[in-house]
């Protein structure tokens, strides 16, 4: 079974014809480690689904410090959603931490697909709700939990991430220095 079909069918079931119709709205792309899929200042016209690889979305503050908003791994969706939905300039970067294989759908194709196929409209509505829940939990964790608790929660939720991502990036995601993160591991 195609991995995208398996992913979609976690929420809605599709016939072979329906999946072929869905897949025809996507394109495949391979990206190398350190290649960007989104750069700050550009209008984002694609939403990406990760077949293979690991990516990060982040912004760079005025002092040049990188702040990681999200990691993306297999079966995750990633883009600058504000830029994608509102068709305005991106405020973030997204690049590949590893060589990656992605499927992407353009804004126009996603709009057409959801208008023509209510199952996909339900799929993206559910994915959007799950994304909002994850974001809410991340913000609550940043506000409520100590650095150690945030670190342990991330390790519990995504243990494989720690094997794929340098500690410097984990620190940037948690909002701490590399030295603080090292003290947590001691």
Describe it:
The chain contains nine helices and eight strands. Helix 4 crosses helix 5 and helix 8 crosses helix 9 (178-185). By secondary structure, it is α+β, with helices and mostly antiparallel strands. It has helices at 3-8, 16-23, 81-86, 107-116, 118-144, 147-157, 161-164, 167-174, 178-185; strands at residues 26-31, 36-38, 46-52, 55-60, 66-72, 77-78, 93-96, 100-106. A hairpin with a 5-residue loop joins strand 4 and strand 5. The chain has a domain at 3-115: Jelly Rolls. The protein is globular, with a radius of gyration of 17 Å. 47% of the residues lie in helices and 23% in strands. Strands 1-8-3-6 form a four-stranded antiparallel sheet.
- Supply the number of helical segments: 9
* Order of adjacent strands in the largest pleated sheet: 1-8-3-6
Beta percentage is 15-25%
Radius of gyration, in angstroms, nearest whole number: 17 Å
How many strands appear in the DSSP assignment?
8
Approximate helicity band:
40-55%
Full CATH superfamily name of one domain: Jelly Rolls
Helix-and-strand structural type: alpha+beta
Low-confidence stretches: none
- Output mean pLDDT: 94
The CATH architecture designation of one domain is Sandwich
Shape: globular
- Helix and strand sequence: HHEEEEEEHEEHHHHHH
Largest sheet: 4 strands, antiparallel
CATH fold name of one domain, please?
Jelly Rolls
Alpha carbon gap, first and last residue: 44 Å
* CATH class annotation of one domain: Mainly Beta
